[in-house]
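Following the same procedure, the fold was encoded as tokens, giving this record:
***
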Amino acid sequence: MKILVANCGSSSLKYQLFDFSRGEERRVAKGAVEKIGVAGGGARDHRAAASLAFEELRNSGLIQSAEEIDGVGHRVVHGGERFTSSTRIDEAVLREIEACCELAPLHNPPNLAGYRAMKELVPQAAHVAVFDTAFHTSLPAHAYVYGLPYEYFERDRIRRYGFHGTSHRYVAQRVAALEPAARRIVSCHLGNGCSICAIEDGRSVDVSIGFTPLEGLLMGTRSGDLDPSIIFHLIKTQGLDPVRIEKMLNHESGLLGISGVSNDMRDIVLAAAAGNARAELAIEIFCYRARKYIGAYLAALNGADAIVFTAGIGENSPDVRARICKDLENLGVHLDTESNTRARGECRINVPGMPVSMWLIPTNEELLIARDTQRCILTG
């Protein structure tokens, strides 16, 4: 069985091809078409980008025709409250995804554009939607209802939805395989987008990211948590309109806004080492906020059996991991300096014998999407 995984953004189509023949799970191809719709870019639209992806697969000799593809797994950011698991896409599902575009205007429309392009090119394949939000539909009401008048939840479904669910679900499954006794997990997805998730018995019970991907931790260009009154203050004193403020909070804040250097932690670490005080402050704020959320979820879970670091920063920055874990020893969190420094790939990084195990686990959302797609095909 050959499964193609498609992850479509507003200007990119990233894809991976998996071969599940003979009981194996082999990724046989990986590629991307960038700058979709940009003058001089890779493709004029998602349909053209999908055609380029298949052309690359054919040229590589991995497939002879699109008819060899048994299933296409589509990353869909927002599934609202309706979708609690991955599902085959039909007209009813498509309408539900379209209804969520208002909640994720930057993500769901390109996800749908990618689906329509792939559906046209591979009409015989099973098309499956794998939702970022689905893993968090297990949140209890006390974790997802905001302190607004209740009518806004009942009428408008304003609530915490959570994102990065595919990544959190993948690392939770890996911890369960590596350490079966670990029931309570704090999963730290730290990249350009960041979230921390409290997981109990494989189910998400709280997550730092909320109604939109803006809430929670400091991120590459997103502000994370702030006092809502700041927005009203900016409107009154600076004359900023909601569109301008939304752009600032989503695209000009976070690590970029504080450091003035970059949204990339690697650049900021280099700048801090060279004496840039704002870069150093950005790192400290990033790590402090992550530490606070870990502490909060240790309280929510009544302790933890494991803490996991994943995604670009979480997997590749020993210094950031060390700063986050600083002064958590009284909570049972003891990072092993040597193990942390030389950590590569999937490995344990805690001091042996301590009550909380600590793991570095590279996320593999595409493999999970492929597995979900295969499962949906096999179960009908």
About this structure: The mean pLDDT is 94. The longest strand covers residues 26-33. The first helix runs from residue 46 to 59.
